[in-house]
Amino acid sequence: MGYKYFHVQENLPMKKVLFLCISVLMMVGSAWAQNSNAVRDDRDRLIRSLEKSELTFNSIAAKKEKAANPNMLAACTDIYVNAATGNDSWDGESPVFTSGMNGPKATIQAGIDAVCASGTVHVYPGSYNETAAGRFVLGVNGPHQFGLFIDKDNITIQGVDGSGTPITAYAGVLAEVATNATNNFGYSGIFVEADGVTIQGLKILSNTAGDNKTFEIIGDAFTLKYCDITTGYSVYFNDWRYDDNTTPGDDTDDVSHVKSYTVEANLFQNGGSIDLASGAGFSGPVSGREIKDNKFEEDTFGQYWPFISFNGSGTTVPWFVYSVGGAEITGNDFSNTYNTVSETAAHIRARGNYDNSQFNWTSYWNDNTFNVSVVTLIGLSPIFDVRTYSYSTSYTFPNVRRIGLTIQGGINNAAAGDTVLVGAGTYSNSVTINKSDLALQGAGKGETIIQGDGTTCSAAGIAFSGSRSNVTIADLTVTGWLDGIQMFTGPLSNILIEDVEASNNCRHGIWSQAFGIDGLVVRRVTASNNNVLPYTQQFGRGIWIINGVKENITIEDGFFNNNRLVGIDVSDGNVTGLTISGNEVKGNGDSGIGVLGPQGPDATLVTKNTVTDNGRFGIEIKNPTGNGASSGPGSVVIFDNIVSRTVATTDLRDHCGIGVFRRSPVLSDNADQPSGVVVKENEVTGFHRAAVGATGDGFGIVIEGNNHTVEGNLVTDNDIGIQMQAGNPSINAQNTAYFDRGDGSPTSNASITGNTINNNEYGLRSIGTVTGSVTQNIIHNNSINGVTILDEASTAVLYNTNQICLNTAFGMENLGASTVNAENNWWGDPSGPTHATNPTGSGDVVSDRVDFMPFDNIGTSIGPCPAPLKPIVFLANEQVTIARSKHSASQGDIHSNGGIYFQRGDPNTYYGNLTAGGAIKIDKEIKIDGDATAGGKITLSGNAKILGTKTQYGSVTAIALPSLSYSAGGSNVTVAKKKTVSIAPGSYNNVIVNDGGTLKFVAGTYNLNSLETKDDENKLYFDVTNGPVILNIVNNFRLSEEVKVVIFPDGEDGSEKVTFNTMQSTQVLLGKESYVLGNINAPNAEVYLAKNVSFRGAISAKRITVDRDVYSLHHSSPGTLPFQKGSADDGEELLSEQSIVTNYVLSQNYPNPFNPSTRITFALPEAGHVQLHIYNSFGQLVRTLANRELAQGWHELTWDGRNQNGQTVATGVYLYRIIVQDQSGAATYSETRRMSFVK
Hints:
Elements: H1 14-27, H2 36-68, H3 72-77, E1 78-81, H4 108-114, E2 120-123, E3 126-130, E4 132-137, E5 141-146, E6 148-150, E7 156-159, E8 175-179, E9 188-192, E10 198-200, E11 203-207, E12 213-217, E13 222-225, E14 228-229, E15 234-238, E16 261-264, E17 267-268, E18 273-277, E19 289-292, E20 295-297, E21 308-311, E22 328-330, E23 333-335, E24 348-351, H5 361-366, E25 369-370, E26 374-377, E27 389-392, E28 396-403, H6 407-412, E29 418-422, E30 425-427, E31 431-433, E32 438-441, E33 448-451, E34 462-464, E35 468-479, E36 483-487, E37 492-501, E38 508-512, E39 517-523, E40 541-545, E41 550-556, E42 566-570, E43 575-581, E44 584-586, E45 591-596, E46 604-607, E47 610-612, E48 617-622, E49 636-639, E50 642-644, E51 655-661, E52 677-680, E53 683-685, E54 698-704, E55 708-711, E56 714-716, E57 720-725, E58 747-753, E59 756-758, E60 762-767, E61 769-775, E62 778-780, E63 785-789, E64 798-800, E65 803-805, E66 810-814, E67 820-821, E68 850-851, E69 872-882, E70 893-896, E71 899-902, E72 908-911, E73 914-916, E74 920-922, ...
């Protein structure tokens, strides 16, 4: 190629120089005319080389012009434009016309042409219709007509108000700009060629010939702010001066001209967008490229085109030539209602080749707001690695990342193990889970809402398709659909639904009929108000799991309220490994919780649910097959639930709180008859027949089938407290004594033990061929009968060792023909029950055919009808032996069902009455200051004397020893030498206190495998401030020498409040010189009091042996043991040592039930902010007892049974809840317990 050289005048404008040079090249045979790419590359290189000389050319001319006109630069720095008052022939140097040519321009383009580099064009309010004709891009590409053409560096085009003050918010723009671009490379309404240009405070209208690029920016450092862009088209960044360093396809050495830009605080209406392509932003720091604080709005139909789009190379779009760089995108507000599943729809998108490290997707997601937003992440959130995908239209686009608009679009682009993250907003499309290994993660209940129309009821909000596994749905609401979440296909496995609300759907909240599911966790889910009127299908559930084998299902800590039929329903059987725990289930039309066919090999547990005011049933367990165990594989357990009715029923039929019965089983999947269920420690209250037209009754607990256990429940204020039944001859028949829903086998068997059954009409009833036992229950204050045997078939049940008292008509009424075994019960009085065969009896009335002899004539000091205190210090089944003693102050009655033997005295006197079923022998030097009665002979040796009445060969009623049954297990506890350890009520394995150690207990019950002290001088501390302490020991209770029992704060006066029970058959040792307070019950063992023991309390044992010089007193005996009473020093020591607390503890209130007040004790291992609240059974706040900082250690608060307004609360069950917070406000501990207030 040959070149010709021209002389260039020094004052020739630079663009003319460039045009001249390029023209010369074209004339001498440049390849431009043959190849547009080559043209562009050669042109750009030439322009860059010539631009380096521009300063030289222009500086010469500028120096001469400035010398001739010193005010020239100042005059063109500020140019004023006013469409209403201006004239383009004026100089624009004044905002108002003064004289001559001095006044504002009429058009913005005229102002741009007049302003100097780095100057400002001030645009006054008005309507501007702009045309920039005959313009050459970079001086050579043209001529073109734009609306505005900006080719001067560092100028500002600034909208102002009428006073000339700059506009600083898009809502306040006063100048409207329409453009008339007709350029042939896609209309560019405003074309920005220069660098450092700022446009602010303008309203941009449509381009007359049609909209494409509202702005096209090829200059660096462009700023657009405070503008209202109405067109719905693009602010387009496009790098015409990108330098690929002659290595196309290799961008490692490329340099872009457009390195920075700022788009700030603008309004983009009608789907207006920011688009970056062909090298824009490839070079330079990301921090120099900012898109911030803008508002993006779609038109009324929504837009599938992204608001912000980065378009790199590597696509098949011919004008996306080079890669692009990322930007900082913060504080923007995006709103787009386009809801069609599309590969292109997005708020922010990048595609083609780009450096993803420049794209902070985490910030894009977190630092902007969206009306809806979806992003698919590789793996689990919160690692924010956006999944890429490809799609094709008329072009192909690889490597696409986006923040999209539709949930289904995010799912469709997910791979195995991905998370589809769904932002806050309302989504109107249904969702299909069409792949496994997926997490669908919302922003929270009530934040991410999948919203149906609530009327057509034709689709599910979220539906599973095919066999799916390892799917999580979390933190969203799905409402207004046929079903909220629908799992119709399967089998399914490992499905987690967590922190989801599926309420107000036409039919069900969650419905699984997947024909097999293994591993379903439904946690903290709200599924309420489903299938409400007017939807016609009346069988809606909160959650319904049906069809196929159902394994390893957990439903916990949720709310399932006010559904048309059932709250939680696991139907048609074949279920194992089921846990339903911690849920609130209220106001459902028929049943709160229903489970059909629970069975092994895994456990079924329904626990800690609050089940209130459901139509007919609180908890239904239908056709269970349990193994009778209270935990472990194969067990079926209903434990620690609150089941109640607080409003009158409208159902006229039988209804119940907890029912275990047979109900239309599918025999291929389930056993024909119920068996092996444990119903334990529940509270069941308020089940009564309808006031008018009732054909049925309200039952607390109903049991039919075999091998059931009903233990430790509180059943109160029902028509029938507990019913045992078998062989209902007419299922669903009304007005019968049977619970009509069940149709169990002709025989049933159950153990009813340790329950409190009170304030019902009928406490406990049996009907049909029922066997089993009713033991250790407290059955009192029932308005008709305590126990009713309804027919001959149920007379085989054994009723023993119960407290039956204060019942209105009968303590026990037998309507059968055979006699029922009701021996060893406490009937409310030592004289026994009231019956013609027991003329002195004044306890509860019993009917004929009740074998109540022998009865318990001792009773208990606690309970609704306590026995008068008898001062029996030693009670033995076989023998009491007392060695010689130098003390003459031991007191208390002694009873033995066998014999009593006092060995030779020192001499000494014993104060108390002696009764023995066998012989009594008293050696010399002994005086008995009391009566002696023996069923056998009484032998006095030497000078032995009985100062009271002596009766031998008399009638002595045997006294039964307590029957003990419990188990223990858990961690070992070892108190090191001279150390102190506190333990909370609970179950433990082996407990050992070493030399000089102290072990402390608080109010409550402890189950211990063994309790043993080693060496000497150990202490057992019992804090009975909040109630008694009971130690249940299984295998070994043994106190070494010099053990001291301290009871705080009562000392000896609190001896009744501590009880040691042991089931061991080996000797119970109270070691030499020990100081022991409390009750000791060892019905299978000898209790041995070693030499010089001091004892206050009562001992019942198989045998009792008292060694020399033992000092013994009954609880009620006057006097004091040789050691001082629990002194102030002991109390102070306890309080001080109790500051060493290792665990949080919330103790059971004491007394409970209570009236008028009760005490609540808790322990803090460290200081914290404590809230202690009282709630009623509806979860409503009744009283706040504490809301303040408390120190580490033990604390006690008293509730006086009054609400916040000082009013006494109603009788019922109440909850007390503690929440402990650290300094940051985070909860470190919370626990809830129940208590009962009785007026």
